[in-house]
Amino acid sequence: MSDYPALAQFSARLGYKLDTFQITACERLEEGRSVLVAAPTGSGKTTVAEFAVYLARRERDARIFYTAPIKALSNQKFHELCAEYGEDEVGLLTGDTNIRGDAPIVVMTTEVLRNMIYAESEALHDLAFVVLDEVHYLGDRFRGAVWEEIILHLPREVRLVSLSATVSNAEEFGDWMHAVRGDTDVVLSEHRPVPLYQHVLTSKDLLPLYVGEDGGLVARGRLNPELRMLEGRGSRGNREGGRGRSSEYGAGGGRNHHDRSHSARGQHGRNQHGRNQYDQNQRSRGRAPVRTKRVSRADIARALDETELLPAIVFVFSRNGCDQAVRQCLYDGIRLTTREERDEIRKVALAEIADMSDEERRVLGVSEWIAGLERGIAAHHAGLLPAFKTVVEQLFQRRLVKLVYATETLALGINMPARAVAIERLDKFNGEERVALTSGEYTQLTGRAGRRGIDTEGHAIVVWNDGVELESLAHLAGARSFPVKSSFRPTANMTVNLLQRMNFEVARDTLELSFAQFQTDRAVVDQARELRAEQESLASYDAAAARAHGSDRKRWEDRARKLRRKVERGRRQIASRTGTIARTFERVVEELLQLEYLEGAAGEPEVTPWGELLRRIYGDRDLLVAECLRHDAFRGLDAAGLAAMCCVLSYEPRRDDDIEPRLPGGAAFAAAHDRVLDTWVQLDDLAERHRLPRTEMPHAGLASTMHAWSRGISIERLLEDTGIGAGDFVRWSKQTIDLLDQIAQACEAGVRAELDEDRLGDLARLAREAKRSIRRGIVEASSSS
């Protein structure tokens, strides 16, 4: 490392030796290049990001932004960096939280950075690095476009540190980043520093999925013949109507040959008597039982404890299932903690909820929650109050809570190191049907097991049921990576932001640089990049011709004419090849011209004052919100009514929600709601005519709830009356606050543009009043969670 003094100093501070991929990535950063690091979960990718922070702090007046896909990750990274560099050096921006935004190190969500880029914030001027953590989120169909917008529009001199899970098309991803941003190196590692062993938990034993030649535990190898026998007996019995040997088989013909598989000794709770009776009835008819005994959630806890695989995460693909699992463990007397640990757990939990009233504690089920924590067991899902999730995460990190039943949201990079991960089922309900887990989902879930510097090995466990197919499981376990597929498409907000910064042709050609277009036709990206450079040259030729006279002028005009023909020829070639992104952009432009957010000819549109207002509205319903502001759809609403209406416009029910739309009382809200729906219908028809994606109809499921909260109803009564989870209510309150904030800023922009100044000024003030009215109580307490 003698040629890399910063890296030598940085590595000397660490308590461990850097791996080859970490060294390579850090060297590229010190050389002044950007990097895309793709490596397995838990391999130490964040060390590369920490080196970028170190480099930024060595450079005078240089700043670094650390972005994360979700607020929970942003909060976690913020606290880690504060502990490392001091609170004065680190800021946090997550939309609803603004802490030291001018600090040299700022943690933020990706949406915040995208908005800063479009606003041409001064904070970008001295920016040296941006860390894009979990950059494979670029493939997310709802939010993935934000990552592409950042990569495309961030100033070229800013170096990117992009961190990704192991994706199978990392080279393609890296090639695209190099094409659009310049010097970018791809650093790949498939080595997992902590080996991951695969298992299957049956009703009586924990069996390895793979075994070596000597029958011992291996990370890869041949499928365990004992599992093949179990699969064969279960499926054969079902096919043949009960013929065959008993499938209460656990270890079967023998014990496991490794120390991680202990017998559960048949101690699996209350269902045992009923199952035994069923087996006895089957035998009395001369049949062997054909169903495998179900492994309960309490059985899972017991087995993990007996095999010394705690702390562990059990993924259960429903919120209710997670909560029920904790209750089952309590009822079955599971206890995983010592008295000293229980005392510390209670101390931490009570400190976090110290400001809650007795009534709040009652309605939030604090007693049962703490009872589970004290036994070392907890649930973790999006429906929990953020404070509860924070406590669970802290206690799990300290290995005081030993077992967490969680939904897959926990696999999104939150730092909760586990020795083992168990997956209850290999399929999940998507709102319409049960679908099998993909290899990418399986990789993300099991990647939480075994963390570097903490564990020497990790263990992935699938809970056996008669629907498990070993070949499918082996495929999931053997697939170490998954592809990232772009979900990028131009939107109304994106279009006006682009056209405010550049002309139509440059904006269209910029969109041709997207990863979506790159994947459609890799060659067109290089061509579009050349075209963009030629357009810049053409602009300089035209400027030179305008300044010149006589013959240093005829010569420039000839050059410009020749280059203009070349540019047009290149544009036709690109359009003839694919041009799908560009054509979508053109359709959005036509739509916005018709709605008067743009004006002028289709090839030379300019952003109107109403387009300036649209620039401040983000989200799937950007155009609907802007149209409502423009046509005064919210007239007659008070602060509570506006809060409720913004909840209508931001709320997206989960697919398995059965919440019926409930409007607040009063004619004013009903009339405003009708105007909003009428506007949505008109925009939906317009999108269909322009062959553009259509948005879901606004849903009033939480309108009455938000209205009541804004008017001062207590959280106890609200939760009891509605049955909604506290965490869900807080989350949608934050979404509502975010939209209210956007409306206030958009209206203020409209006032500056002299658009209906009195009305928009009043609406901006009303939006801020509505924001204050719902940012109280547990919503306010959760504002930084």
UniProtKB/TrEMBL annotation:
Give GO terms for biological process: nuclear-transcribed mRNA catabolic process, 3'-5' exonucleolytic nonsense-mediated decay
Is the Hydrolase keyword given for this protein? Answer: yes
Residue ranges constituting the Helicase ATP-binding domain according to the UniProt record: 26-185
Q: Name one GO cellular component term.
A: Ski complex
Question: Residue ranges under compositional bias (Basic residues)?
Answer: 255-273, 284-294
Where is composition skewed (Polar residues) in this entry?
Answer: 274-283
Q: What is this protein called?
A: DEAD/DEAH box helicase
